[in-house]
Amino acid sequence: MAEMMYWEAIRRAHDEEMARDPMVICLGEDIGVAGGTYKATKGLYEKYGPLRVIDTPISENGFTGLAIGASFIGVRPIVEIMSVNFAWLAMDQIFNTAAKVRYMSGGQLAAPIVIRSPGGTAHQLGAQHSARMEKVFMGVAGIRVVTPSNPRQAYGLLKSAVRCDDPVFINEHELMYNMKGEVPDQEYFHPLEGSEIARSGTDVTLFGYNISVHWCLKAAEILDKQYGISAEVVDLYALSPLDREGIRRSVAKTHRAVIAEEDEGPVGVGAEIMAIINEECFFDLDAPPVRVHSANVPQPYNHKLEQAAIPDHEDVVNAVLKLFGKS
Amino acid sequence: MKLEDKKRVLREMVLARRFEERCYQAYMERKIGGFLHLYPGQEACCIGVMEAARPGYDYVITGYRDHIHAIKCGADPKEVMAELYGKETGSSKGRGGSMHIFDVKHRFMGGYALVGGPFPLAAGLGKGIQMKGGDEIAICFLGDAANNQGTFHETMNMVALYKLPVLFVCENNHYGIGTAIDRSTAVVDQYKRVCGYGIESAQCDGQDVEVVYEHARRAVDYVRSRKGPYFLELITYRYRGHSMSDSRSYRSREEEEMWKKRDPIFILRDRLIEAGALTQEEFHKLEKEIDDYIENEVVRFAEESPEPDVRDLEKYVLADRETQLPWLTGKVA
Predict the structure, then answer these.
(1) Following DSSP, what letter does each residue of B218-271 receive, concatenated?
(2) Which DSSP symbol is given to B193?
(3) Is B330 in the A-facing interface, judged by CB distances under 8 Å?
(4) Separation CA B323–CA A162 (nearest Å)
């Protein structure tokens, strides 16, 4: 098994799927001649040409709609939206068309497109380049939401998403493109539904997805070494539909839960998981579940304020200690 | 247009008119719900353009005033009416309603209810055609008010840039909901608005179906021969309000009467009578035949069809689970 970076894994999935099926195309701003802002499409323009690797104007609603229309008649587009903040501009096409067209046509038409986009706080990008949108996507019927936390998932999720007949939103992270990890040498399809136990434990479950899985893993290590608390880390790579059964199973085992997300707290992913735990695991709980999330502010530019706005592994550790009455 | 084609086109326009008027009646009887946007007055637009294109072969997409476009592409009027009644036999199985008629087997790719929304989708159909390499074209019918959406400009830029085979047909009926075009739009001649993108365009009378046909023939040939996209503006008028909840208080009855003197059906009818190809009696007979057909077959079918089963409420949200299992589970054989 070779190690590769997150962006290389995404690039490999693009390449394999485009080589397999001439109807797979990719489009977005700067993805062709410029090679992609995060290099996820590097070299594909030279290999597949301008008809299949399409540099688009900076008009998100327009090119996302173009991809949707093309998908109606057999094209399999992978749309890169350079930053998830710009996906707000494409909301009409994503939510009013892609997510609804199968239903409102009585099953006659579907929009099997993939939308990939990085979100999250990187290095002082300010309010309009640091948003997270996964909670918005997961609240809408008709579109799947997945979010890879490592190169293996980034590769396998894109492969599965391209072949799935539903629209799929892949939530990546600004800070993860250079992350290294093992990716199987042979072709690999990561499931679009379910969750993974990233670390097994018995005393508390830490739920994370995308970058927050890494806070949870680091927190679990600290909890184990310094406090003798055994934490299980559940990686919720699929946010819609959510793996209710996986959530239930882990809480039934550990009886405590902490949910970590980078997004603002209100109406978030954590709120939804909290609701599931409340509905389905109430009598398994030894303590009320806790959420760890960003402050409810637009991301500030100032570095100190920015870091104060978002959580990290220490916040997860503190949340667990609070659960155990140790803080 | 040959004589027999003119007679068929007249028949199609009468069917379009009577179908829509019957919808009006069914709405007043509360048989049809939701919003209902009717087409009387504009018949020559869709029918004239599609007469020059290949219905059922070329891809067609439009906004919410979509019943007649679907029928002209080949949709069965019975299924369209059943859709308006919300029935399982409807063209979108009762899930779409008036604003979301779909008939994909006849390449009618849908009516969409967000103003300007279909522009980029039409570009996408053009992209799909470009990749598949056939000689189909994509035709996008939208009203004048849609041209003030950002999607109009985003799309015109892209179709010109990528040379996509899309014909845009602007049915300029002078009103965006209840606001007159000169009160919402800086340039009222819509065909001029695409010049900045280097797109060929023309404007013509949208009340005379033969004029529409001649202009559309040139436009369709242009797009089909892969010279690029084309924008055709048709000057027309809708007799009824924007939708059924519109009392038309924003315009005068004199204005409406003036347009009714240039009724698309009467223009063609009078021309055929003048040429000795039709008599007044034959025309009345035609109207009667169509009314009987709509009443006895179309409306009856809609009335007698079953409602969707409530147990199927969540059907069609996502693709069929069984066929998607390899991607949902990652277990690919």
Answers:
(1) HHHHHHHTTS--EEEEEE---SS-SSTT---TTS-HHHHHHHHTT-HHHHHHHH
(2) G
(3) yes
(4) 15
Are B57 and B165 within 8 A, CB to CB? no
**Which B residues, 122 through 141, put their C-beta within 8 Å of a C-beta on chain A?**
122-132
Q: Which member of B96, B121, B327 has the closest CB to residue A69?
A: B121
The separation between CA A126 and the C-alpha centre of its own chain, rounded to angstroms, equals 21
What digits encode the pLDDT tens for the residues A243-295? 999 999 999 999 999 999 999 988 999 999 999 999 999 999 999 999 999 99
d(CA A299, CA A282): 34
Chain B residues within 8 A of A67 when measuring between CB atoms: 124
Give B161 to chain A, closest Cα distance, Å.
Answer: 9
Q: What ipTM score was computed for the predicted complex, to two decimals?
A: 0.96
Look at chain A and count its residues. Answer: 327
Sequence-distant (6+) residues with CB within 8 A of B292 are: none
Residue A188 neighbours by CB under 8 Å, 6+ apart: A152, A155, A156, A159, B330
* Angle at A56 (CA atoms; ends A53, A57), nearest 5 degrees: 165
* Structure letter (DSSP) for residue B308: P
Chain A residue at shortest CA distance from B115 = A92
pLDDT band for position A326 (cuts 50, 70, 90): confident
Question: What is the 3-state secondary structure of chain A?
Answer: CEEEEHHHHHHHHHHHHHHHCCCEEEEECCCCCCCCCCCCCCCHHHHHCCCCEEECCCCHHHHHHHHHHHHHCCCEEEEECCCHHHHHHHHHHHHHHHCCHHHHCCCCCCCCCEEEEEECCCCCCCHHHCCCCHHHHHCCCCCEEECCCCHHHHHHHHHHHHHCCCCEEEEEECCCCCCEEEECCCCCCCCCCCCEEEECCCCEEEEECCHHHHHHHHHHHHHHHHHCCCEEEEECCEEECCCHHHHHHHHHHHCCEEEEEEEECCCCHHHHHHHHHHHHCHHHCCCCCEEEEECCCCCCCCHHHHHHHCCCHHHHHHHHHHHCCCC
Q: How far apart are CA A231 and CA A201, in angstroms?
A: 5
Strand boundaries in chain B, DSSP class E: 59-62, 108-111, 138-143, 166-172, 175-176, 179-180, 200-205, 230-235
Region of A195 on the Ramachandran plot (φ > 0 left; ψ -120 to 50 alpha; else beta): beta
Which amino acid appears at position B73 of this protein? C
Do A73 and B128 lie within an 8 Å CB cutoff? yes
Per-residue pLDDT of B51-108, as tens digits, reads: 999 999 999 999 999 999 999 999 999 999 999 999 999 999 999 999 999 999 999 9
Contacts of residue A258, Cβ cutoff 8 Å, sequence gap at least 6: A204, A205, A206, A207, A216, A289, A290, A291, A292, A316, A319, A320, A323
User: How many Cβ atoms sit within 10 Å of the Cβ of residue A271?
Assistant: 16
- Tell me how many degrees the CA angle B50-B53-B56 measures, rounded to the nearest 5: 80
Nearest-angstrom CA–CA distance, B236 and B174 = 8
pLDDT tens digits, residue range B206-259? 999 999 999 999 999 999 999 999 999 999 999 998 998 888 999 999 999 999
Give this prediction's pTM.
0.97
